[in-house]
Amino acid sequence: GRVKMSDEEILVLAVELGKDFCLYFDELECDALCKEKILHRVLRNVHSQLLVVRPDLNLAAFEDVTDQEMQSGKGMHFSIHYYKTTTPLAGMPVAFSVQVENKSYYMCCEREGGEMIVRFKEGEVPKEIPGESNIIFFKKTFTPYSSMAFKFEYSLERGMFLAFEQEGCLRKLILKKVPKDEVDETMKMSL
Questions:
Q1: Fewest C-beta in 10 Å: which of 7, 133, 160, 163?
Q2: Helix spans in the chain (H)
Q3: Domains and CATH numbers, the chain
Q4: How far apart, in Å, are the Cα atoms of 68 and each of 41, 43, 64, 65, 72?
Q5: Bridge-based pairing state of the strands 23-25 and 15-17
Q6: Burial tier of 92 (Cβ tally within 10 Å: 0-12, 13-18, 19+)
Q7: Contacts with 7 (C-beta within 8 Å, 6 or more apart), sequence order
Q8: pTM surpassing 0.85?
Q9: Other C-beta atoms within 10 Å of 62: how many?
Q10: Which residues pair with 103 in a beta bridge?
């Protein structure tokens, strides 16, 4: 059989280096993000706790989860939606959704009382996102040497990362401003 050349390869022909050494793809004038693949994962913090979303309590926090709870998997099995990107240097654009009680919730960020809050809203993640969106995070390796751990930067506010914050006995999911190149363990996540 003949090997069909994938559409992918054709796009890469026109690459030029801009003066700030970013890659510009001439062919891709479309700025929309198109969904490429979905991975099903749990998100763990440095304490091996799983991120659990409880929409009824309007809460997302990292918790110690038993194997049994994990099987039932309520609010902890995430779909990570990967989007094609024209600017790979920013990181891989992803969106998060999670199923709870047969409903789908997506993660987004909203400004509330002067600070950015991570929210989970009922609904589906769109297949295409025109330009910018408050549901997109850039997935990056946590440090250049660790390919297994990641950090997720909020696409609309650079320097803001998904992280957790100790609140009583809870480790709540928050958006945290982290200075460039600072290694902050609270934003380290493994999939």
A1: 7
A2: 7-11, 67-72
A3: 33-190 (2.80.10.50)
A4: 17, 17, 12, 8, 7
A5: antiparallel
A6: middle
A7: none
A8: no
A9: 23
A10: 100
| % of residues, the chain, pLDDT over 90 | 54
Tokens found for residue 39: 């991975």
* Residue 48, phi then psi, degrees to nearest 5: 60, 20
User: Among positive and negative, which fits the CA dihedral 166, 167, 170, 172?
Assistant: negative
Please check whether residue 141 is in contact with residue 147, taking contact to mean a CB–CB distance below 8 angstroms. Answer: yes
Report whether 93 contacts 154 (CB < 8 A).
no
| Residue 122 CB partners (closer than 8 Å, separation 6+) | 55, 103, 104, 105
Tokens 């506010």 — which residue? 157
**Residue 53 tokens, joined:** 């979303």
Residues in the chain: 191
Rounded to the nearest integer, the mean pLDDT of the chain is: 83
CA atoms within 13 A on the CB side of 65: 24
> Residue 191, SS3?
coil
Residue keyed to tokens 């999911």: 173
Distance CA 170, CA 166 (A): 6
